[in-house]
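Comment thread on ticket #2218

A.B. wrote:
> Attaching the input chain for the structure job we discussed in standup.
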Amino acid sequence: MTGADYLLPFRTKLRSMRTESFGADPAGARMERIRRSPHFVDGAFQNPVGARTRPSGSTVEFAKIYFHKEQRARRTPTGTVPVHATTLADLATPPASGLRLTWMGHSSVLAEIDGRRILFDPVWGERCSPFPFAGPKRLHPAPLPLAALGSVDVVVISHDHYDHLDLPTIRALAGTDTVFAVPLGVGAHLERWGVPPNRLRELDWNETATVAGISLTATPARHFCGRGLRNQQHTLWASWAVTGPEHRIYHSGDTGYFPGFRDIGAEHGPFDATMIQIGAYSEYWPDIHMTPAEGMRAHLDLQGGRPHGVLLPIHWGTFNLAPHAWAEPGEWTRDAGEEAGQTVAFPRPGEPFEPAGKLPTAAWWRGVSQPIAHPWRRPRGAESVSETSRGDMDLAGER
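C.D. wrote:
> Ran it. Output below, let me know if you need it in another format.
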């Protein structure tokens, strides 16, 4: 670095440090559209209800917990995660019921719905990070190569965080004919990475795009955005309600619990299946991620307050992103489902299933996990989730 470099404006220096994986900031007509959004206030997108997006509490205390040797061991599997071995062959035959879901790990799900194929939050990269040498690394391989997946009608992105919007994956998909449905502002990243503007459907909350006979509606979520050193909240985050001629499904993206799930369900549900975030929660960021109990409550809200359809837990098992034990989201969701009387599918990564057919329900993670405590379990005789889910009860009980 020369002496002249110190004379450069600080913002210019920041931009020079941004690799392509950071994406691009919205500008021009896109930024004008963002400013017109009713959800863009005081120069930033706002959550449907208030949310703290930065970790609360002591950073020092959090670091002690997160990097403690024994705690780190709890957050990783003890052996090889049992990825489904025949994903490619299983996907070769169309779903008999018209709806099939394949969890590829984390929040990546292939949904085959009424003759169309929709890929949610595809992340095939080795790390969810702007750098290839640092950041959370996959705990299991992708169930099959992206190129082997075949044609996809729509790629749906929930928001622009690295564990949901992956540069190498988008680059590969940009070379296909697929359409991309994304929240407002996220299209700036995709255009920089080679996606033509005419293949983008960029939506504000409660806007709908129709692709190949399937309606995709960006619905509210309680989260935040950002990929760079400056987090300006200029790209929106969303959940998605997807409706075909015969079936309805919902993908939560990342979100904290909020009452708006009831409104989404009333407008777009009930759903044959929901894909709900139940991992990477913490008391340090309670507003922007759901615990499994809150995820169950969200599912019930989406279904009109009663058990209905199938819940597919997502956002767990693939990356180490929070202080909780690696397998805790699976165990807790299993308990929450039994307590609520709600059907939950627990596929291994890459294991396709039809919500109307036989569901994968085995606790496959137990073979590669340390023992899990169950502090959320209710004493015997406590009232059931299904009897109280309409109220404000904390489904986790006393944690």
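A.B. wrote:
> Thanks. Noting for the ticket: Residues 141 and 346 are 18 Å apart (CA to CA).
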